[in-house]
Design brief:
Length: about 190
């Protein structure tokens, strides 16, 4: 009777596995639909999702989190070609923490829609572990106090914050290659 039990167990497992695959397929189809609507192009949507899948494979971040972040950015009017490069910078700055990743994405998207950095978005970024003003201070030589005053006048542009993310994640930056390093660690554990 033991082998029959084994057979039942594997059938149940196979069923669960099939359900999980169907679930993932359903999620991917939903993502394809939403990106097609946001990008007004099936081929652009397919390319963006393919790039996101590739990014998910090489980092600790999950595809659904990356895709949600991409949807947020597109929803706030960030240009399609900027989405993945910015997401990768945010990914490094978040150090692979899914909550921080979403939080930074939302703050960045809100700031982009406003056209300049505001206190609320700055606080959200700082709470998620990144103060763009510190990076801007290093780039410009201005003090944090000066930069805060400039921010209150609406003088800290989206470009300045974009450059802060680029600087922090480029060669020599504090967060350079963060997820790649973590991704290798994870892949190493799986091997």
């Amino acid at each position: 009777g033991f082998s029959a039990l084994g057979g039942v167990f594997t059938a149940a497992m196979a069923q669960r596995f099939a359900a999980a695959i169907t679930n993932v397929r359903g999620e991917i189809e939903q993502l394809e639909t939403s990106f097609t609507v946001l990008l007004r192009s099936k081929s652009a949507a397919d390319k963006m999702l393919a790039d996101m899948k590739q990014y998910a494979i090489t980092t600790p971040l999950e595809l659904d989190g990356i895709a949600r972040a991409g949807q947020t950015m597109l929803g706030f009017g960030i240009a399609a070609e900027k989405v993945l490069p910015i997401l990768k910078q945010i990914g490094d700055v978040s150090m692979g923490d899914a909550g921080k990743f979403q939080s930074l994405t939302l703050a960045f998207s809100q700031m982009s829609a406003t056209g300049h950095l505001m206190g609320q978005d700055l606080l959200q970024m700082i709470n998620a572990g990144f103060n763009p003003l510190m990076e801007i201070s290093e780039i410009t030589g201005k003090s944090l106090g000066e930069l805060k005053k400039e921010m209150e006048k609406g003088a800290i542009s989206v470009e300045m914050v974009e450059n802060a993310f680029i600087s922090a994640t480029s060669e020599g930056g504090k967060f350079h290659g963060m997820l790649e390093k973590q991704g290798q660690g994870i892949k190493g554990l799986q091997a």
